[in-house]
Amino acid sequence: MDEAQTPMDALDSPDGLQVNLRSALAEVERLRRLVGDETYDAERWANCDRAEAIRQANEKHEAHLLWVAEHDARRDERDAARAEASVLTDELGDMRASMSAAEAEVDRLRAALAGGQELIPMEPSIGRIVHYVSYGTPGGEYKSVCRAAIITRTHPETVTAMNNVMAVSLCVMNPEGLFFNQVVRYHDEDPLRGGTWHWPERVDGSN
Ligand SMILES: [Zn+2]
């Protein structure tokens, strides 16, 4: 606008003041029009709409950020749950293995019961009657046989990890007479070994 380009040296002269006044009035008029201007109004509203759109976009963005945070939290939860499930699966495997072992033991005990075996080995004690296995003669005149014997002393110090049944001292009752034997080792496997002791076989046994 021309009035705004008025030279500075003209401003102090009366003409200059006139020009200045006109310019100011023109500016007032311009502003008045602007205030009442529909396009200005529309622009203002458009700006408001833009501001609203930005606000909504911000809201949407914040909601999105929240969603991302929640998604991350859910993913962490899911990972933790998976790790826990894996641990539980391992524990379950261990428990199944233990259960299998326990079932095998139950089967073994049932079989032992059905077979009439001793489930708990008896502790040898003084006065009990056991079998002593005599030595046979090398020529075969006498065979190695079971003899009745009474425990006269126990030797718990002879128990080892390999041999968990203690040696005993015995009074052996041969048909021809008694003889006393010290620290006789336990042995109950076929073939019976001369000079050892064992619990008397059951009457339906093969020995
Ligand atoms: Zn025997």
What is the topological layout?
Elements: H1 14-36, H2 38-114, E1 129-133, E2 146-155, E3 167-174, E4 177-186, E5 196-198
This protein binds zinc ion.
Residues 131, 146, 198, 200-201, 207 line the site of zinc ion (ZN).
Task: Considering the chains and any ligands shown, give keywords for the structure.
binds zinc ion, alpha+beta, 48% helix, 207 residues, 5-stranded mixed barrel
What does this structure look like?
This protein has a five-stranded mixed beta barrel. It is 48% helix and 17% strand. The chain has two helices and five strands; from the N terminus they run H-H-E-E-E-E-E. Among the domains are: 2-36; 129-198, no CATH class. The chain is of the alpha+beta class. The protein has helices at residues 14-36, 38-114; strands at 129-133, 146-155, 167-174, 177-186, 196-198. It is rod-shaped and about 165 Å long. Strand 3 (167-174) and strand 4 form a beta hairpin. The longest helix has 77 residues, at 38-114. The chain binds zinc ion. Zinc ion is lined by residues 131, 146, 198, 200-201, 207. The site of zinc ion has 6 residues, from loops.
Summarize it.
This protein is of the alpha+beta class. About 50% of the residues lie in helices and about 15% in strands.
Oligomer: single chain
Strand order of the main beta sheet, please? Answer: 1-2-3-4-5
Secondary-structure content class: alpha+beta
* Overall helicity: 40-55%
Q: What's the N-to-C terminus distance?
A: 135 Å
Describe the main β-sheet briefly.
5 strands, mixed, barrel
Q: Whole-number radius of gyration?
A: 56 Å
Shape: rod-shaped
Count up the helices.
2
Strand content: 15-25%
What is the H/E order?
A: HHEEEEE
Sequence stretches where pLDDT stays below 50 over 5 or more residues: none
Hetero groups: zinc ion
Average pLDDT number: 85
The counted number of beta strands is 5
